[in-house]
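Lecture 7 notes: from sequence to structure.

We start with a single chain of 454 residues. Read the sequence below before looking at the structure.
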Amino acid sequence: MGAAADSLTAHVDRGGGYDIPHAQIRDIQIAAIAERFAERRQRIRLLAHRADEAGITDVRELAEAVPLLFPHTAYKSYPESFLSEQRWDRLGKWLGTVSPYPIAPHAELTKHGPIAGIDDWIERLEAAGHYVSCSSGTTGKSAMLIGSAADMDFAGREAVLACAWGANVAPAQDRLVFGLAPIAQVPRNHAVGSALKEAFSLPGRERFSYPVPPITIGSITGMVAMRRKIADATASPAEIAEYEAVSAARAAAMDAAVGISARAVIEARHEKLYVSGMWAALYQVAAAVRALGYSGADFHPENTCYIGGGLKGAQLPPDYRSFVFETFNIAPGRVYQMYGMQEIISSMPRCQKGGRYHLPPWLVPLVLNEAGDALAGPHRGEIEGRAAFFDLALDGRWGGVISGDKVAISFDPCACGTAGPSVRDDIARYSELTAGDDKIACSGTVDAYVRGVV
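Now the structure, written as tokens:
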């Protein structure tokens, strides 16, 4: 990766480096971005386009990195017809615009037979060394985030480090691991889940997985496509009947999963537990545990939990957090919460005292104006604006991304005593603040470039 980048990512095995003041590593971070740019400019076609368009030949200050960032929508910039028409050869060509490594030729992927669907395509890419982790796409097109084997390894190591730091719980292989929410079956989730289980689970004990049908990218994109066909009145009666049958079966499985999970966690209540999930599912299981006559007094006093994601639109009572923690006897000091996004590989663990999300030294924060085309101001004190990051740990795609989040990032020490940069716990989505009309200035030119290539 280069000496500067390596010096920063090495902190993943040295406790995280969250306490390093920004001023101490700012110049190293800029040098590391310059290294990555020099390495990848001619290897990532979209990066070369962005650099040529902006006339950037080197990165000597943070402002020069801004035109090199990709909008998060870049990973959704493929024509949707490629997916609906199963044009895997064209999707592979599109992936080649954002990947630093040559994508396996379509002929190689199909040498053992035609591709059955997007899940099959992703599996064949993985066999060829390309790890594509798609977002759920529940409200639209899925982002396709290509990574390398090195990314999968780093994601697992970093997840264990961040969880241990954020929850102040040692990865001592002394817990039963309970996954109390459905998760998408994508390479990154598998890498992170496997690493966390290895680090925290009692040897020889299986992880409890939420008992619902697997969430694959094919199942998600198929449901989204059918909703659109129904809305457009283009779905046939047979397609609608199949859609309704699948939806009913999944709803029944989700309903049953709550009770099954509640009974399983009650049975293990005297063991030290590691509980993971999202708020809505955790709340449902906690309510079922209470309905069966159990509460925090019945569970081990050293339990911990990993909360992933926000409410995702779920309507929960105001006290949902305390209700979940009290049900499973989880003290506030043993809760791991994080801020992150699919487009980067690193996470920002939330501290206990300050209630802020802390950045590791290899994750460079850039606070931009709302349009996303310039820094919002000097990076000192606390500054508010559009969140952008350069993840120096990324190998299988470009590390610089402009998000859809409005954040406040402080470059002063946190109340918890940690000296590195941190994000205030009031993150908002620009799409929600602007009634769904969030426009990043460079998105249009990126889409136009991709259309011209593929």
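The mean pLDDT is 92. Keep this in mind for problem set 3.
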